Amino acid sequence: MHSRLSSLLAVSLTSACLIAGGPAPKAQSAPPQVAQTPPMGWNSWNYFAGKVTDKDIRDSADQIVSTGMKDAGYIYVNIDDTWEGQRDSSGILHTNSKFPDMKALADYVHSKGLKLGIYSSPGPKTCANFEGSLGHEEQDAKMYAEWGIDYLKYDLCSFIPAVMQKQAPHDKAAQMRLMIAAYDKMSKALKATGRPIVLSLCQYGWDSPWEWAPELGGNLWRTTGDIEAHWQSIYDILEQQKGLYSYAGPGHWNDPDMLEVGNGKLSLAENRTHFSMWAMLASPLLAGNDLPHMKPEIKAILTNKDVIAINQDPLGHQARYIYSVGQVEVWARDLKDGAKAIAIINIGSDRISTHPFHLDLKQLGLNGTQNAKELWTAKEIQLADNMEMEIDSHDVRLLRIESPK
Ligand code: GLA
């Protein structure tokens, strides 16, 4: 069967092959070198947005090391939008005054044993109206590699009006081909540098990127619009992930957006549930909080090694939604060596209406009593069929069963 990408990008080639009676060749892609487990790190946007500076990035890198986040697996330190300055007469893009020397910054981040990420757009402008990469893709990719960049978030933004709507005003399918071609172009430009660079697609989940992004070398792709630091946003995004589990795997991940853990007015339970579910979803774990002022309880959430182990499980199987009772949802995920993770969340705001909740082990494919570990209390417990469970509003019970029966 032809992949969706090859058929979209090679319409003319496909028809030529059909005339010749042979199948269209499948696009060749080298085995992925990066993101074999979901990328972990930190990104500047959710807390600093347009105010981020070189100093914020250095301070965050320092904090990732001193808080133990690096030891827990957070490696990428990603600069989001607003680092860009102007292009000179040779087309070389310079940084703006907030980032005096990107190479020196990359050297600093690397000296801590961390990796540096950057941001651009396939359009003429980024979402915050800074310089994009349109017409300079190879030049920019080369420059990123020379600086020592390890990760690129490539954000559609102005490519929509400037190219898609302009070149194909009444043809949605043609607009989509233009968009895919733009991501393909940057992917090839990055590959041509010879430096392993994670490619993160940010086009808000339009036109099912999970169907075509892996094949063009995308390591992750946003599945929704922007996350915000409140429960409704987190829950809405979670609901949109329900059908996507089969698209995730080593080297290519659904991205329900960066973490808001520690931001806004999320309660402790909401922070815990957000982190638990992003771990279950095999989502990239990119913290987005103010690291120098991180509270101990937030650090404890972000560095819970058992929860991170679910996210980083080498099988790379994204959790599936299994069933609901009232306002309690049950999700599960298969792990290496036959283990299983189960998340039970209370999505309701009214505790009484959803209780008592009785766990149905059969719906999880389990037979009789199971030995499990509660990952937020680190206690061993026994799960019995039909057992009653207490879950506060917006809270979670996250369980790992090493030897399911
Ligand atoms: C878009 C993206 C965000 C962030 C901003 C930066 O909204 O979805 O994640 O990168 O642009 O301008």
Biggest sheet strand order reads 9-8-7-6-5-2-1-10
Number of helices: 14
State which percent range the strand residues make up. Answer: 15-25%
Bound molecules: alpha-D-galactopyranose
Number of strands: 18
Tell me, rounded to a whole number, the average pLDDT: 93
Shape: globular
Major sheet: size, sense and barrel closure?
8 strands, parallel
N- to C-terminal separation?
Answer: 37 Å
Cα-atom radius of gyration: 22 Å
> Which runs of at least 5 residues are low in confidence (pLDDT < 50)?
8-27
Structural features:
single chain; 405 residues; alpha/beta; 8-stranded parallel beta sheet; 14 helices; 18 strands; binds alpha-D-galactopyranose
Set out the fold topology.
Blueprint lengths: L3 H6 L1 H10 L19 E4 L1 H4 L5 H13 L2 H4 L3 E3 L5 E4 L5 E3 L6 H10 L3 E6 L16 H11 L3 E5 L3 H9 L4 H21 L5 E5 L6 H4 L7 E3 L8 H9 L13 E3 L12 H13 L4 E3 L8 H7 L2 H7 L8 E6 L2 E7 L5 E7 L10 E2 L11 E5 L4 E5 L4 E2 L6 E6 L4
The protein binds alpha-D-galactopyranose (GLA).
What does this entry look like structurally?
This protein has 405 residues and is an alpha/beta fold. 32% of the residues lie in helices and 20% in strands. It has helices at 4-9, 11-20, 45-48, 54-66, 69-72, 102-111, 137-147, 159-167, 172-192, 209-212, 231-239, 268-280, 296-302, 305-311; strands spanning 40-43, 76-78, 84-87, 93-95, 115-120, 151-155, 198-202, 220-222, 253-255, 285-287, 320-325, 328-334, 340-346, 357-358, 370-374, 379-383, 388-389, 396-401. The strands form four sheets. An eight-stranded parallel beta sheet has the order 9-8-7-6-5-2-1-10. It is globular and about 70 Å long. The two termini are 37 Å apart. The relative contact order is 0.11. Mean pLDDT is 93; it is low at 8-27. Alpha-D-galactopyranose binds at residues 45, 80-81, 126-128, 155, 202, 226.
